[in-house]
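Listing S7. Sequence submitted for prediction.
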Amino acid sequence: MKKIALVLAIITFISCKTDKKQEVKTVKEIKKEIAKVSSAMMENAVIYEVNIRQYSKEGTFEAFTKDIPEIKKLGVKIIWVMPIFPISETKRKATGGDFASKIKDETERKKALGSYYAVSDFTKVNPEFGNIADFRNLVKTAHDNDMYVILDWVPNHTGWDHIWLKTNPEFYTKGKDGKVTHPLKEDGTSIGWDDVADLNYDSQELRAQMLKDMTYWIEKENIDGFRCDVAGMVPLDFWQETVPKLREKKDIFMLAEAWEPELLKDNLFDMAYAWDSHHLMNSIAKGEKNAKDWDIYIEKINKQYEKDDILMNFVTNHDENSWNGTMEERFGKSKHLFTVLSYVMNGMPLIYSGQEYDLSHRLKFFEKDSIPKTKGKTWDLLVKLGKLKNKNPALNGGKQAASYKRIKTDNKNVLVFERSKNGSTVIFIANLSDKEQMYKNTLKGAFLNYIPNTKVKFTDEYFTLNPWEYSILINQ
């Protein structure tokens, strides 16, 4: 009897342990899904552009995925992944802009990895970055961290290895000689994108196939939308036909690499590029423009765009860094001022891979390169700006954006404006020049100066600002 009792006790003990293990396992498997893409999310979001090839020494999905929790610390809610598709070998570009095939030395030729925008297959991933399982893990990890993933889509052209060139030549634009051509300007001259073949949207079959390929990534790979390359070069009626069908599959976020206001109408794209503000900030940094020009810009976009239109504010991106210069080259000592301005103005701010780590060199576009990973002043600044953008409704920049009120200063080089919503107010003060400036102050009362986290009280009628000095004031 004692032996039987002992056996029963052991069985009971093992059974209890097994049940507990099962319970624990069940709890671990319960994971809340990321909330649907919404207008509320867009109000206070920061978007991050990741260049997978250059983000890490490995240049892989896996290497970036490990850092997603760190990216979250910057207040990022949307991750825009540059094109992940296989790149054509035919007419593959090398550093200097020439074709890799012209490089005689095999070792040097192998370094030419080509442009992400010369896609050879819209339904596969570039083995340079990993495999589809690695990409799925990236998406899952982002979702687990409450971040959305949008794919960089290239609807205007394909690489010269794309299967469509053999199976569906009618998908492409042809020149007078009947041969497929690369993208051309309206006057028939070359844009310079001779590593890609121009698509012709007169073909209804092309439109259907493009929709099918985009739908694949939403339905099968659970992505949350697209950043559409040179969206303004694709016929508007294609977007009018396609985007509603994509939105039927899932709530998605759509970013157009374009400025055209019509792309933001009728729930087509959620956001477009703030090209004018980007160029203006570069000009101000060079001393060519000032705060009066900023006022002209604000007046222009208020007329050009509707109240619920969203523009993406950026001080750098993959094109700007590689082709036009680093932050130091273009902005110099004013780089932090204009970074702050991109957050406090109306719209959604962009961070480009390496910006957070004070990237100080132009990343190679057609070869392997990498960004630094040392956290410095810019990392700290972006963490603080991300928190403010995420939490303070006065910086809402979406479809129900906070108000914008210009405050007069009697100085063409000093910019002061106020953003307000739901009882919260943020005031931005900046000297947009490399000279000391005195300005007339009309602010009264006490505020929190956000970046140094100190209190400031305005009593004097005139204030002096150092070159490129700025303040972010929060009402107390």
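Caption to Listing S7: primary sequence and predicted structure tokens for the chain studied. The first helix runs from residue 2 to 29. The chain has a mean pLDDT of 93.
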